[in-house]
Amino acid sequence: MEDLITNQTINRKSEHVDIALSELINAISKESGFNDVDFIHCATPELDLSDIDTRVTLLGRELSAPIIIAAMTGGYPRAKLINGTLAEAAEILNIGMGVGSQRAAIQNPALENTFSITRKKAPNALLIGNIGAPQLNLGFGIKEIKKTVEMINADALAIHLNPLQEAVQPEGDTNFSNILEKISEICLKVDFVKIVAKETGAGISMEVGKKLEECGVSAIDIGGAGGTSFSAVEKYRAKMQKNIVFEKIGEKFWDWGIPTAQSTVEVAASTSNVEIISTGGIRSGIDVAKAIALGADATGIAYPLLKPAYGGDVGTAIKIIEEYIRELRTTMFLIGVKNIEELKKASLLITGNLAERLRLRNIDPKRYVNRKC
Ligand SMILES: Cc1cc2nc3c(=O)[nH]c(=O)nc-3n(C[C@H](O)[C@H](O)[C@H](O)COP(=O)(O)O)c2cc1C
Question: What is the rounded CA–CA span in Å between residue 215 and residue 248?
Fold first, then answer.
């Protein structure tokens, strides 16, 4: 039985990557919301572009820019190359990186090297381990958490909240009962690593953000809608399995969730003591800057880095991230802010669908106007 579950997990992990590389899996009708956010251009920046400082501290570690490579994979042979490539890029650029769910390696230690390669390739980088919240209802306790963290000598551990993905998957683990209590218990008992609560593409509301803060998590990765859609990925998996019922369900929920920009604002509004990572459809350094000005402490990028990582192409992965950083610096220059602290207070015009959504949630978009420059 245990072997069957491990094999199922291994196949699923490789199918996720193969589908992500061969099919269109981005949100279609739902946008991340960043198109409704605009900075106020400053024609007199009063600073030299070369003096701009993008450094931040996240989860107790200093990064050269507010960017982490978001959790993607591990637990099947090819993942060793993918994770190793991403870790090398993270180390060279001094940014953070998350690994994919480590469940398979806890069940089968032969797969540990597909994760532990990250610490080998990135001895100094911020590394975030990963487990699924449903595992907490399937006997995953402190002993397993310790093993998970030790596997990559993680600086933090993400507990991913993926009810959408589990619900649209024929073999999904859908027991999320008492999940907040379980997370709270983990936060209370685990003193050897910081805990991050992480969505995977459907976003975190202000209400859930507040509850997670009360549980004691150190950070929330809001994992909003508008980027990779896991419902889309599962739709294609169901199609491969000729499971028409789940193919349809995956299709219907393709664009489900809270857009990344909205979720970032909501969680920033309802929490005061957690760090916020904004992930989901971050497709340029301008998006990074907008997410920070909306209230995030850092951003996460997954899909744009998958292809080079799959081919072991560290150079291209680095080039893509450097582009993000260059665009972030250019944005900061054009609004006249010299560091990330100032960027957090920059003025923003929020219009259109995002403004309407925020108003309906009793958040006045005007609170972001007239802040600086
Ligand atoms: C192939 C693939 C596998 C993923 N696996 C995981 C995972 O195991 N755990 C997790 O927390 N998130 C996982 N994610 C979600 C990402 O961390 C991220 O939240 C999501 O892809 C949105 O970012 P993006 O739009 O930049 O891709 C995965 C994403 C991709 C593309």
Answer: 36
Ligand 1: which of 32, 73, 228, 321 to mutate, judged by most atoms within 8 Å of the beta carbon? Answer: 228
Mean pLDDT of the chain: 96
72 CB within 6 A, ligand 1:
yes
- Encoded tokens for 159: 């507990």
CA of 177 to the centre of ligand 1 (A): 23
Q: Which fold has domain 2-368?
A: TIM Barrel (3.20.20)
Give the pLDDT confidence score for residue 1 in this predicted structure: 47
Ligand 1 atom nearest to CA at 158: 11
Tens of pLDDT, residues 223-256:
999 999 999 999 999 999 999 999 999 999 999 9
- Three-state secondary structure call for residue 209: helix
Residue nearest to atom 6 of ligand 1 (CA): 72
Every domain of the chain and the residues it spans: 2-368
17 Cα to the center of ligand 1, angstroms? 10
Task: Calculate how far, in angstroms, residue 302's C-alpha sits from the geometric centre of ligand 1.
Answer: 6
The answer to whether the CB of 82 falls within 8 A of the CB of 21 is no
Burial 220-232 (b: 16+ CB within 10 A, else e): bbbbbbbbbbbbb
| Ligand 1 atom closest to residue 26's alpha carbon, by position in its atom list | 25
Q: Is 86 in the pocket of ligand 1 (CB under 6 A)?
A: no
Dihedral sign, Cα of residue 150, residue 153, residue 158, residue 163:
negative
Q: Is the CB of 281 under 6 A from ligand 1?
A: yes
Which pLDDT band holds residue 137 (cuts at 50, 70, 90)?
very high
Cβ–Cβ < 8 Å for 90, 128: no
**Cβ of 101 less than 6 Å from ligand 1:** yes
Per-residue b or e along 305-333, where b marks 16 or more CB atoms closer than 10 Å to that residue's CB: bbebbbeeebebbbebbeebbebbbebbb
Residue with CA closest to ligand 1 atom 11: 160
Given a cut of 50, whether residue 7 has pLDDT beyond it is: yes
R_g over Cα of the chain:
20
pLDDT one-digit tens code per residue, 298-313 = 999 999 999 999 999 9
Band of pLDDT at residue 4, cut at 50, 70 and 90: low
